[in-house]
Design goal:
Layout (H helix, E strand, L loop, with lengths): L1 H14 L2 H10 L4 E2 H5 L6 H14 L2 E6 L2 E6 L1 H33 L6
Helix pairs in contact: 1-4, 2-4
Length: 114
């Protein structure tokens, strides 16, 4: 459990930055070279590489050298881990709100008098 918690911490820290979220969004369309990923941003290639390093260290992406080009890919299993964590919390809160709604509905019903 602690290992998963540390992994989630790294993933959420990585996703906290809007530039890194934009990079992840782009990579969900398919693998991309570092230069392709950097093109839309008004920052240095070194800054993009730092963002990619954070994403890779969090486990959200994988990079590998293909010839002279470094290609970046999403790690779907890592995204699933984040999604599962969020889904568990959402489900818990939906159940709680459903129970609260049922209780409030019960309280709103007029009591029958015989």
């Amino acid at each position: 459990m602690l290992k998963q918690s540390v992994e989630l911490d790294l993933m959420f820290q990585a996703l906290a930055d809007p530039t890194r979220r934009a990079l992840v969004d782009r990579m969900t369309q398919g693998p991309a070279s570092v230069s392709d990923l950097a093109r839309p941003f008004a920052m240095t290639l070194a800054a993009i590489l730092q963002h990619l390093r954070v994403l890779e260290e969090s486990g959200l992406i994988h990079t590998e050298k293909e010839g002279r080009v470094r290609v970046c890919r999403i790690e779907p299993e890592a995204l699933r881990t984040v999604e599962d964590w969020i889904t568990e919390r959402r489900t818990t809160w939906e159940r709680r709100l459903d129970r609260l709604g049922a209780l409030l509905e019960q309280d709103d019903r007029p009591e029958r008098q015989n």
